[in-house]
Amino acid sequence: MTTTGQAPTRKLTAKGLATRERIVRAAAELIYEHGAQNTSNEQVREAAGVSGSQLTRHFPTKESLVRAVLAWQADSIVARHQAPELGELDSFAALRRWADSYIASQDMLRGGCTFGSLAAEVVKTEPTHRDAVADGFERWQALFRRGLGRMRERGELRPEADPAALAHLLAAAFQGGALLDQAAGESTPLRDALYGALDYIESFAAAR
């Protein structure tokens, strides 16, 4: 999926779009490694291979670049949750495959969730980004809500199962488990958190 998150406010040429995406990708990598506060425009410029004028043309302020990275990271996490093997996340098996794909990955050991790590930082330091953070989490949880809602509609989950509450549970288990994985340097916390959340969801399975 090729995206730069936020749409540019003016129409860009193909070359301009490619430059913008290169900047956002470079910034996303640097911010993931070092945090937004510890990433300078000069570091982004060098990593993206652009001039200072190109950087400021696309992102006049540091805040505009951080917002673009937030949107790009949200796009990325949503795209990963829409992988063909996960379908619509509307079955117990698909939810288990989703959990297993992250537990088997080393991504969480490196720096936690790409979106969640940045979100946690900017919510505290840049309250003006709160809407971008909320939008990213909403888009992600909406995938779970839709899938769980379909399961309830098909009678696979009992009527008292609340898709919104269960989506919150999955997101919280993922974010908390990812942070604990990062601290511990191994994937047991994320596995325990996700499997525990899935066990709870499966406790709402309709009797067959």
Characterise this structure:
The chain is mostly helical and 208 residues long. Helices cover 70% and strands 0% of the residues. The chain contains ten helices and no strands. The protein has helices spanning 14-34, 41-48, 52-58, 62-81, 92-103, 107-111, 114-125, 130-153, 163-184, 188-202. Helix 4 runs antiparallel to helix 7. It is elongated and about 65 Å long.
Number of strands: 0
Tally of contiguous helical segments: 10
End-to-end CA span: 39 Å
Mean pLDDT: 90
Evaluate the radius of gyration: 19 Å
Detail the topology: elements first, then pairings.
Blueprint: H1 14-34, H2 41-48, H3 52-58, H4 62-81, H5 92-103, H6 107-111, H7 114-125, H8 130-153, H9 163-184, H10 188-202
Quick overview of this protein structure:
The chain has 208 residues and is an all-alpha fold. The chain has helices at residues 14-34, 41-48, 52-58, 62-81, 92-103, 107-111, 114-125, 130-153, 163-184, 188-202. 34% of the residues are buried.
Q: Could you list some keywords that capture this structure?
A:
208 residues; mainly alpha; 70% helix
